[in-house]
């Protein structure tokens, strides 16, 4: 009987309907992995044009995943593709999109006021049970949650790029997050195929708190002329077994993102030398060298 009750209570929190707000790279990836694992997904952005891009990015990525998972079975690959794509609906009204949502994952631009405004309006539109989460990589979850009346059902769900490939999900708790909310987020993370780790609401959580200072030091190393970009990257790939070197990674995630994160943390924690902005990186961003997406960063790219 005890088992029956505990199962019932777990089942009450099962997440089936997911709303993803923001159709960029991260939001599209989050929508994709949710749909791939059987969830109904509403992907929200401001315009049908942006959503068209999200849709084609998702279709391309699902095709890669399906090909990999079902190498010798074309029918199974097609089934995975079709079923995944059919579970995602593309919508432009955020308030309507949360009406029957169990979980909202926000992946809009990294702007605190915009996120606060969004969650305040969603709070009024969503049912009581809906869990709210932000995919922010550098802002404080508590500050984002501060405008809503559901801090007990609020947390961080931080994904890594490319979302369909990277296996980690950071699940972030604020002091008000209930154990039930936390467990629901962990269970959902597992259901979408990720390995979850629990994080406190500290700058950069675990991965970016370590990765951002490391990448910054690699840029400073280049700035000092200690080694060439190629040699720094080769060193970390062959000497530390990483899939990409730090400068390749900076190009991959976007130099503007790196600068934005460091400047935000530096402003908040001016005494921490790890968060000191890097001149070379700032200069490159001013020159429009944002990395892969602009065609040039530490390296030049012919395809984005
Ligand atoms: N969708 C689906 N599958 C994809 C994909 C995508 N968008 N991108 C790559 N893949 C698959 C490929 O199909 C390929 O599958 P296969 O093994 O069957 O051939 C596999 O992933 C490897 O891809 P590639 O052969 O194209 O290239 P690589 O072997 O160089 O891998 C990479 C590319 C997965 C990006 C790898 O270089 C890597 O892991 N890099 C590190 C990425 C990283 O550190 N990300 C974290 C960034 S920090 C972050 O996201 C935090 C945020 O807050 C900013």
Task: Identify the notable features of this structure and list them briefly.
2 domains; NAD+ binding; alpha/beta; eight-stranded mixed beta sheet; disordered N terminus; globular; 8 strands; EC 1.1.1.35; Rossmann fold; NAD; N-(1-d-carboxylethyl)-l-norvaline Dehydrogenase, domain 2; 51% helix; 304 residues; binds 3-hydroxybutanoyl-coenzyme A; 13 helices
Brief overview:
By secondary structure, this protein is an alpha/beta fold.
Indicate the proportion of strand residues: 5-15%
Strand neighbour order, sheet with most strands: 3-2-1-4-5-6-7-8
> What's the domain count?
2
Small-molecule components bound = 3-hydroxybutanoyl-coenzyme A
What sort of overall outline do the alpha carbons produce when their principal axes are compared?
globular
- Oligomeric state of this protein: single chain
How many angstroms does the end-to-end distance come to?
57 Å
- Output the number of helix runs: 13
- Based on DSSP secondary structure assignment, what is the total number of beta strands? 8
Helix proportion: 40-55%
Structural class: alpha/beta
CATH superfamily of the largest domain: NAD(P)-binding Rossmann-like Domain
Q: What's the alpha carbon Rg, rounded to whole Å? A: 20 Å
- Poorly predicted ranges (pLDDT <50, ≥5 residues)? 1-11
Largest sheet: 8 strands, mixed
Write down the CATH class of the largest domain: Alpha Beta
H and E string: HEHEHHEHEHEHEEHEHHHHH
Could you report the average pLDDT, rounded to the nearest whole number?
95
């Amino acid at each position: 009987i005890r088992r029956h009750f505990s199962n019932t209570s777990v089942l009450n929190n099962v997440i089936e309907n997911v709303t993803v707000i923001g159709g960029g790279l991260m939001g599209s990836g989050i929508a994709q992995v949710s749909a791939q694992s059987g969830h109904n997904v509403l992907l929200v952005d401001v315009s049908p044009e942006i959503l068209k891009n999200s849709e084609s990015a998702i279709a391309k990525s699902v095709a890669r995943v399906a090909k990999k998972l079902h190498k010798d079975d074309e029918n199974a690959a097609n089934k995975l593709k079709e079923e995944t794509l059919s579970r995602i609906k593309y919508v432009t009204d955020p308030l309507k999109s949360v009406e029957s949502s169990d979980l909202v994952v926000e992946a809009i631009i990294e702007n605190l006021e915009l996120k606060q405004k969004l969650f305040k309006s969603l709070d009024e539109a969503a049912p009581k049970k809906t869990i709210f989460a932000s995919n922010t990589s550098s802002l404080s979850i508590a500050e984002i949650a501060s405008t809503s009346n559901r801090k007990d059902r609020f947390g961080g769900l931080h994904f890594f790029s490319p979302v369909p490939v990277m296996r980690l999900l950071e699940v972030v708790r604020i002091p008000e997050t209930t154990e039930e909310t936390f467990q629901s987020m962990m269970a959902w993370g597992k259901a979408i195929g990720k390995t979850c780790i629990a994080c406190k609401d500290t700058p950069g959580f675990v991965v970016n708190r370590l990765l951002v200072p490391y990448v910054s030091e690699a840029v400073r190393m280049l700035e000092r002329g200690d080694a060439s970009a190629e040699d720094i990257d080769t060193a970390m790939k062959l000497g530390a077994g990483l899939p990409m070197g730090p400068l390749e990674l900076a190009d991959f995630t976007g130099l503007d993102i790196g600068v934005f994160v460091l400047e935000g943390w530096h402003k908040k924690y001016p005494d921490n030398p790890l968060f000191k902005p890097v001149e070379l990186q700032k200069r490159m961003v001013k020159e429009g060298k944002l990395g892969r997406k602009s065609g040039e960063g530490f390296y030049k790219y012919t395809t984005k």
